[in-house]
Design goal:
This protein is an alpha/beta fold and 218 residues long. It is built from six helices and eight strands; from the N terminus they run ββαβαβαβαβαβαβ.
Length: 218
């Protein structure tokens, strides 16, 4: 049974219509193939954005690249429902949403070699030293990102937090099976790196934006 059948859909208040976009992570099983969420050929590439927030990047990217399927992951239910409603209103049939813990999703649930790109933009930096262990980008997480990526797949990261970026670079430098590549152009007619609300806000404030891109070679 495909994951977009009615039993897997999340029921939301009428003001926020999830249509068939928002899926309930409690029903996707211990492991699943995200390509099964879409009524499209299984060979189509799929990109996963972790922490979509209000969905600004996701909607722009999915609108411009209709030949790609997108899975947005957001832990905060209010944002997941808000983005889902935006997707429905934009009539984007190449986007699905999950309200889920991204760490658990990547490390335990996504199957091997199933994703073309993983996007992580402006993750919570947990700036206090005693909270650094809560940061998403840790060696185990990166190892599992490589596992779920297809050969030649890409892992893209952006942050405004210099110290966190330095940690990210240390972690990925030690990660086997990855090589750094130039950050790709993702949005048409945009001067922003990824165009999220956070990026637009921080650019206006004059903050530097740090980015890195990795490709899976084994």
């Amino acid at each position: 049974m495909r994951l977009n059948s009615p039993k897997y859909l999340v029921t939301t208040p009428r003001a926020w219509d999830s249509g068939d976009v928002l899926l309930d992570e409690k029903h996707i099983g211990e492991q699943f193939d995200p390509r099964e969420m879409f009524d499209t050929p299984s060979q189509r590439p799929i990109e996963v954005e972790i922490g979509v927030g209000k969905g600004t990047f996701l909607l722009q990217r999915a609108t411009q690249r209709r030949e790609i399927d997108f899975l947005g992951v957001e832990y905060a239910r209010a944002y997941a429902i808000y983005t889902t409603d935006r997707v429905r209103r934009a009539q984007l049939d190449n986007v699905k949403m999950l309200c889920a813990d991204a760490k658990q999703l990547v490390e335990s649930q996504l199957v091997d070699d199933s994703v073309w790109r993983v996007h992580v933009y402006f993750p919570d930096p947990w700036p206090k030293r005693r909270h650094n262990r809560r940061r998403l980008i840790q060696p185990l997480f990166v190892e599992h990102v490589r596992r779920v990526l297809q050969p030649g797949g890409q892992f893209l990261l952006v942050t405004d937090h210099r110290e966190y970026f330095e940690q990210i670079i240390r972690v990925v430098a030690d990660a086997p099976g990855f090589a750094r590549i130039p950050f790709p152009q993702l949005l048409e007619d945009s001067d922003h790196v990824v165009g999220t609300n956070f990026e637009k806000k921080y650019v206006k404030q004059g903050r530097p934006i740090f980015k890195t891109a990795l490709i899976k070679y084994i």
